[in-house]
What does this fold into?
Amino acid sequence: MLQKRYPFGALISAAIGSFVLAAIIFHTPVIAPVLATNTPPGDGRSFSFSSIARKTMPVVVNISTTTQRPGRTGPGGAFGGLDPLEDFYNRFFGEAVPREAPQRSLGSGILISKEGEILTNYHVVKNADVIKVKLSDQTEHEARVVGKDEKTDLALIRVGKGPSNLPVARWGTSASLDVGDWVVAIGNPFGLELTVTAGIVSAKGRVIGAGPYDNFIQTDASINPGNSGGPLINVQGEVVGVNTAIFSQSGGNIGIGFAIPVDLAKKIVDQLRKNGRVVRGWLGIRAQDVTPQLAASLGLTRGAGVMAVVTEVADNSPAAEAGIKPGDVIREFNGKPLPKSQDLPSLVADTPPGQRITLKIFREKLERIFPVKVGELPEEREVVAQAEGKDAELGVRVQKVTPELSRRHGLSSTKGVIVVEVKPGSPADQAGIEAGDVIREVNQRPVNTVKDFENSVRQGKRGDRLLLLVQRGDNAVFFALKRKG
It folds into this structure.
């Protein structure tokens, strides 16, 4: 489970992790030659990150925020919230404590200009009424928000009447990072100012469900509450990421942290500086990877992972106007192969609104080229939700989506059929269908009633595959089921 706040016990886990890392380093002399191309700096007698820390600490700031609004704070508030009473209620009762006093949280930031611009996480300053920044010289200044972007969890703030000619971070490039490279994290965990931890890059391009543009650097450098918004630094002392979240099932640090790649952060900063927000391209489609099962159901011969199948097309969107439909398989975006569906949102977002692109589409065993004029992603878009089905052959029982069911499940439509039961071990169960799913299509034909569903399922022979388009929460997903033979 991804968390953005943790109990103090995470310090113990971090300390143990640091001890184990130190033991490996100091008792394995062959490490130095192996890391010849990425050896941390030192004086030749010891293995040390001290020079990196000395040069980088001045560009890391402590951020404290105050929200004056009265009310309740729910579980999963800003990463770095340190209110002990709220933490007690959240941990032991699973709910927030009623509050009338101002809400406070802590985080970190990176100085990126001599005039006092600071890069941090969106969730650090979200809804803040007062933002205070403490510099490395211990002076404290009030800051204002220049711009913020919830989708990438980044924000740009600026010290109002602070000093000029401040120290500035050196930008690196996340593209040059390799798995196994040493990295250093600096921040203010639990309010302990300017703490340095070290580790390696564990993975790149991680998708953690944080948003449509997930592409995180994973590291085992200890990251704890209060580290949010601080830098991830390479051995050259360059910022290569913005520390954002950790993965934990217990609330403690288990050595799985995530940072936003600096190459993405630089693009976001440029837009926040100019516009106060991020302007993104928009097609109005959602898609998923083509698995071998889906390929067989769609009559495709190419392997999985090289195409994306469209699961949803928004009404009145650029894709809808161009004639794109659910079930279409995207083989190329603007003349280039699409490696996986996860790449599509970023490719579209990086395309300037108004630009014309082409999509190579596979539909009904034919390839066609669709020209599409990219629109601008609206600030807020309604998400269409719909329903699923039932049949003894598949192992599901379905019901028409009534207005009451629609309200209960938070659906924005009464179309489709909702799954009320899945038989254990059935084809539906094996495919991953769950109670509460809404079936919108069977074999690319709309389903609006239980009768529609049953008629669609009856067509075909035993052993054939059925392609179900399912709405689950905010996402539409294709499932390929094989009938019992």
